[in-house]
Amino acid sequence: MQDANPATEAQPEAGFDLTPAEIRVLGVLIEKSFITPDAYPLSINAVTTGCNQLTAREPVMSLSEAEVQDAIDSLMARRLVSKRDQASARVPKYEHLVRLRHSLPPAEQAVLAILLLRGAQTAGELRQRCERLHRFDDVAAVEAVLEHLADKYPPLVAALPRAPGTKETRHVHLLGGDAAVQEMAEAQSLGTAAGSARGRIGELEDEVRRLREELEALRSEFAEFRKQFD
User: Fold this and answer.
1) Which of 49, 100, 104 is nearest to 79 (CA)?
2) pLDDT digits (tens, 9 = 90+) for 118-152
3) Distances (CA, A) of 9 to 4, 5, 137, 160
4) Which residues make Cβ contacts (< 8 Å) with residue 168, sequence separation at least 6?
5) Contacts of 11 (CB under 8 A, 6+ apart)
6) Where are the domains of the chain?
7) With b meaning 16 or more CB within 10 Å and e meaning fewer, what string describes 149-177?
């Protein structure tokens, strides 16, 4: 994919302003429709468990069932989630409507779900992390999906400006609005800066270790030299 123009990229359309809880709930509903189809749609308890997973979630969250219910109610008002009435179900169950609202085939649903659940990612990371939802033959296939999602009206994903010192472009979803996109861009910049700082610190530590070893060797040589005169 060609890099987007930094002046125009990552600009969500008005109306995309989901809260972090809503983003997490929607991501969980899409994800679980792939990996646990026999248990889908999901109860509030199941959605809450999925939201608070300690793995494959960035950031890790701790939402209460009440917070999850509020997020689902809001998503239902936005027509992104619906309640499925099942005669055999003892509790209400819910499913996402992203496929219908935005005409997304499975590959695009999978990529969007992973972006919702794990934040900014490269095409290579998305290919690996989508494996349980949808298998992509190569990175080019993921890039094609990202392009199509970016071309939707309104667009659903965008490329972040490439951070200094990085080789690959990272992509973000646009469902959280401008502030969320800006936050992800800043987090990327801070992460890159922190990584560079850690790398420089490591280099300095290696240099100090080398100098200490050389100094110790010189001391040993000097001690041996003095023995000749004792």
Assistant:
1) 100
2) 999 999 999 999 999 999 999 999 999 999 999 99
3) 6, 6, 27, 7
4) 122, 123, 124, 162
5) 158, 178, 181
6) 17-102, 105-197
7) bbeeeebbbbbbbbbeeeeebbbbbbbbb
43 DSSP β-pair partners? 93
For the entire predicted model, the pTM comes to 0.75
Question: Residue 16 carries which side chain, given as an amino acid letter?
Answer: F
16/176 Cα distance (integer angstroms):
6
Domains 17-102 and 105-197 share a fold: yes
φ, ψ of residue 198 to 5 degrees: the values are -60, -40
In contact, 149 and 157? CB cutoff 8 Å: yes
Q: How many CB atoms lie within 10 A of CB 142?
A: 26
User: How far apart (Å, rounded) are the C-alpha atoms in residues 32 and 37?
Assistant: 7
CATH class of residue range 17-102: mainly alpha
Classify domain 105-197 by CATH number.
1.10.10.10
- SS3 call for 186: helix
Question: To the nearest 5 percent, what fractions of the chain are helix, strand and coil?
Answer: 55, 10, 35
Contact call for residues 138 and 131 (beta carbons, < 8 A): no
- At 48-100, the pLDDT tens digits run 999 999 999 999 999 999 999 999 999 999 999 999 877 777 899 999 999 99
DSSP label of 15: T
- The residues, ordered by sequence, that sit 6+ positions from 44 with a Cβ below 8 Å of its Cβ are 65, 68, 69, 72, 91, 92, 94
- Does 154 sit behind a cis peptide bond, omega within 30 degrees of 0 on the bond before it? yes
